[in-house]
Specification:
The protein has about 450 residues and is mainly α. The protein contains 21 helices and five strands.
């Protein structure tokens, strides 16, 4: 017979697998209370908290799991991930090495290690990982993770053809399919429904509050670097990639009498609801930072919702973070992103999706004139000037970059890069791979003219 804690862990894992993360947190806390020495109770709680952006509690839970039983490799991997987000890279590397001592072929540990460890020519870890990749056989998931880790390390040592071969194989093995017609219809519907007349009719209907700041754009556009610099200002609270906007809009659709999805229900939403939902957002995300003058939400996929965000929060600032299209897409291709980024698993679909994104941002600029554009290339070339310009946009006094030094979480695989000194070394990185990028460049078309 299972113990009460084991039954709770099973129920919590089921809730987690179903995407009911708040429920999984509650069950995880009860499981920990029932058996504080059970590492799986702590791992459940840590994983669920990470999904709900409760990163400090997640970190504590994973640390408790590793302390409860240091012989479990996944506990070290989980804790290492939390340490990477917190910027404790030396401690993270120690736990990744501990995980590999227990499970020498642990693919996730190698991938996370590649985020924070730069390879050098002749590095033994590359040969070690190549051997493991050949042995992976019929385990495609391990082969995928090995391939992305190797791609990063081959890039480190300048073996660009090998790096591309590895990430190409990782993307191919992922088997994720992209339906371009579905995305084209969806983005077309957004542009046809959320128009200037739509916005004009709702002007003044939202909740007046200037605290929210939304950073939107494509993944790998340099947003983590921008977020890190802004987060050092004493008046700015960095919230990470918050899910509240998409959840609010999904809830609106689920309660529509016809069950319409975004954006089809938008014309039916009563004017009074815009202010209510705007206030709900500010109260939810701002509760933890009551003194912050600006609340920085870096969920890039919110670019799809810019018109409704502005209707709900007319005084919010929307920052479009941009980067060279080819560099952006190449960087996406090199990352092991989740399957919900279905466009990133082929060069052609990457270029197609980037064009949809660019078309929608151009549409928003025509109906939301105060969207601010920040170019990655300008920011890394003239960081002080661009930092001052952004603070001026946010109506905040200029402060030195070092004015805020306390630790904080950065919730992406860029957690290491974003904390490094600002340099322009990644500009034009795509030229190392130009011979492989024909399908991407063709799909991007005229967007590449200035690259």
């Amino acid at each position: 017979m299972n113990s009460p804690a084991e039954e709770l862990i099973a129920a919590g894992n089921a809730a987690y697998s179903a995407g009911r993360f708040a429920e999984a947190i509650d069950i995880g806390r009860r499981a920990v209370a029932a058996d504080p020495r059970n590492p799986w109770a702590h791992n459940l709680l840590g994983a669920a908290c990470a999904e709900e952006m409760e990163l400090e509690e997640s970190h504590r839970a994973f640390a408790a799991a590793a302390a409860a039983d240091s012989s479990i490799a996944i506990s070290h991997l989980n804790l290492a991930y939390a340490l990477i987000l917190a910027g404790a890279f030396a401690d993270a590397e120690a736990h990744l090495n501990a995980a590999l001592q227990i499970e020498p072929d642990m693919a996730g540990a190698f991938l996370n290690l590649s985020w924070i460890r730069k390879a050098a020519p002749g590095d033994e870890i590359i040969g070690r990982l190549e051997t493991l990749r050949r042995r992976a056989g019929n385990d495609p998931q391990s082969q995928i993770l090995y391939s992305f880790a190797l791609g990063k390390w081959y890039d480190d040592v300048g073996e660009f053809d090998l790096a591309f071969q590895c990430v190409h194989e990782g993307n191919r093995l992922s088997g994720v399919k992209f339906d371009s017609a579905v995305f084209e219809r969806h983005f077309g519907a957004i542009r046809s429904i959320l128009t200037k007349p739509f916005m004009d009719e709702r002007r003044g209907a939202g909740y007046r509050n200037c605290r929210p700041v939304f950073i939107v754009g494509m993944p790998r556009c340099g947003s983590s670097l921008l977020e890190d610099r802004l987060a050092r200002h004493p008046s700015v609270a960095a919230l990470g990639e918050r899910p509240e906007i998409s959840r609010i809009l999904a809830a609106i659709g689920s309660h529509h009498p016809k069950g319409l999805r975004y954006p089809d229900w938008a014309p039916d939403l009563p004017l009074s609801e815009f202010a209510r939902f705007g206030q709900l957002y500010v109260e939810k995300v701002g509760a933890r930072f009551p003194q912050a003058e600006r609340l920085l939400d870096k969920n890039l996929l919110n670019f799809q919702f810019a018109a409704l965000m502005k209707a709900m929060l007319p005084d919010a600032t929307i920052i479009h973070c941009r980067r060279d299209p080819i560099d952006t897409c190449l960087s996406c291709y090199f990352q092991n992103l989740r399957p919900n980024h279905a466009y990133k698993f082929s060069l052609t679909s990457l270029g197609f999706y980037y064009r949809l994104h660019a078309d929608l941002m151009a549409h928003w600029s025509g109906i939301i004139p105060d969207i601010a554009a920040i170019d990655y290339e300008a920011f890394v070339s003239r960081p002080d000037d661009e930092y001052g310009r952004i603070l001026s946009l946010l109506k905040l006094p200029n402060q030195p970059l070092s004015s805020k030094s306390e630790p904080r979480q950065i919730q992406t695989s860029s957690a290491f890069q974003a904390r490094q000194p600002v340099t322009p070394t990644s500009i034009g990185r795509w030229r190392n791979y130009e011979r492989h990028l024909g399908p991407l460049i063709e799909a991007l078309g005229d967007l590449t003219r200035e690259s």
